[in-house]
Design brief:
The complex is a heterodimer. Chain A is an all-alpha fold. Chain A has one domain. Helices cover 77% and strands 0% of the residues of chain A. Chain A has 7 helices and no strands. Chain A is globular and about 65 Å long. By secondary structure, chain B is an all-alpha fold. Chain B is built from 9 helices and no strands. In chain B, helix 6 crosses helix 7. The chains are: A mainly alpha, B mainly alpha. The interface between A and B is medium-sized, with 30 and 30 residues.
Chain lengths: 219, 229
């Protein structure tokens, strides 16, 4: 219970602080505040994909349908966060680079992620039998996740990027983030992640109930 | 003779031979792929054949033709088993790995054949000048390996689902995008008049090679779960 309260407080802090503390950025002004919401959303959409893949592996290994419910819940939330990250990113891009979409490598990867999530649910809806559905969807989730290293590390190196050089991944370039920024940005990342797992657990419960009622009505 | 003394490769070869024979009797997948390829090529040639397009556009058009032609026929190798209800027998007689290797090789042959026909026709019909033919051949070979490596497993997945044809390209496209980006970039260099060599596209070629290796390895590990009921 305590972590739910903690997440609530952290979330409130992030929302209030992001809008009041940091001074507006020189070039793009107040719009720079979207950073505190856009980056955690993009982070969660990848985290959700990873979670979905881990539970898919667990399902193939153990054959427990609850793990498939978890993988599905993570996928659904990932899709939502991916759409949010794409929209906020697009608005951010319009203000910073004067165009809503310009196939920057990061934009390409988030778009492919969106396509993969779409394909994953397209596949799920095309199969009737729950066991077979779970198995094939799990294989596809794992197979699709293997392309992520190509999108995150290789394609940006082959194509030029407009995004600031790996502020999040690369430790040495973190000097670019000021103390105030960090005080808001890290709680934002943490609270978005916890919020994702919380929501995922709720969605998982719904899916498990749904599956059980279906099984009951069949038998 | 005990059953497992027959080696994996012999079985894989038997699966390949069986698929080849089936294919030569009906020529379904071959016809689908070739006709699709030639139709799209004709459309491209009609609309932009006389124009002097930049190398990037030619490379992109070329890979669009290859990609969608491949999508129209590569799933056939598993759909045929499901439709003829022969997959259970195949499951009893050969290990999943042998089946996968056999089907992968069959799809590879199909793709090589497609590229062998489409590439010269594309060069003739759009009047594109190939500056580095060896580079183009390398990219085509690596592209075919990556395409077949990634799509054979997806073909197995969709053959067990309801909507077969429509899903195949939807599921394959996001997975194939890194490969297509690399292949288009490398083909651009082969077409461009600056005359780039292998050293200019080393990172793209590395991408293509690693993509093929990773996808085939992952498919070998995952195929068992798709194939076994």
């Amino acid at each position: 219970m305590w972590w739910k309260i903690l997440t609530f407080i952290a979330m409130c802090w992030v929302i209030v602080a992001a809008f009041s503390y940091p001074a507006p950025q020189q070039q793009i002004g107040e719009a720079s505040r979207i950073f505190y919401f856009h980056v955690p959303q993009a982070w969660v959409s990848v985290l959700a994909f990873l979670t979905s893949m881990i539970y898919s592996i667990k399902y193939l290994y153990k054959g427990n349908l609850v793990d498939d419910d978890r993988a599905r819940a993570a996928g659904e939330l990932g899709l939502v966060f991916c759409i949010l990250a794409t929209i906020t990113g697009s608005i951010f891009a319009k203000i910073t680079w004067h165009s809503y979409w310009n196939w920057d490598p990061r934009e390409t990867s988030i778009f492919i992620l969106l396509l993969i999530y779409g394909a994953y649910f397209g596949l799920r809806s095309a199969i009737e039998d729950p066991e077979r559905k779970a198995k094939l969807a799990a294989v596809y989730a794992i197979f699709a996740f293997i392309t992520v290293p190509f999108l995150v590390f290789i394609v940006p190196r082959v194509m030029p990027s407009l995004h600031p050089s790996d502020t999040i991944i690369d430790e040495s370039s973190k000097e670019g983030l000021s103390m105030t920024t960090r005080m808001i940005f890290y709680p934002a990342l943490a609270s978005f992640s916890v919020l994702f797992f919380w929501m995922m657990d709720l969605a998982r419960k719904v899916h498990t109930r749904e599956r059980q009622t279906q099984e009951d009505s069949l038998s | 003779m005990p059953k497992n003394s027959i080696s994996l490769m012999t079985k894989a070869f038997a699966v390949l031979k069986k698929d080849m024979q089936c294919e030569f009797r009906t020529r379904y997948a071959l016809n689908a792929i070739m006709l699709f390829g030639i139709t799209t090529l004709t459309v491209v040639s009609f609309s932009v054949g006389q124009k002097n397009l930049p190398a990037e556009v030619h490379a992109a058009l070329f890979w669009i033709i290859i990609f969608f032609s491949a999508m129209s026929g590569l799933a056939q190798v598993f759909i045929r088993e499901e439709e003829a209800k022969t997959s259970t027998v195949l499951r009893l007689t050969a290990s999943p790995t042998a089946v996968y290797i056999g089907k992968l090789t069959f799809n590879l042959f199909l793709l090589f054949f497609l590229e062998l026909i489409i590439s010269p026709l594309f060069i003739l019909m759009t009047d594109v000048e190939v500056r580095n033919i060896l580079l183009l051949a390398t990219v085509l070979a690596l592209g075919a390996i990556g395409l077949a490596g990634a799509t054979t497993l997806i073909a197995a997945i969709i053959s067990k689902s309801g909507a077969k044809g429509a899903l195949f390209s939807v599921l394959s496209f996001p997975i194939l995008l890194p490969l297509l980006m690399g292949a288009i970039k490398a083909t651009t260099v082969a077409f461009s008049d600056t005359g780039g060599g292998f050293s200019d596209v080393s990172s793209e070629l590395q991408l293509l090679i690693s993509y093929g290796v990773i996808m085939i390895t992952a498919s070998l590990l995952l195929f068992e779960y798709v194939w076994e009921e």
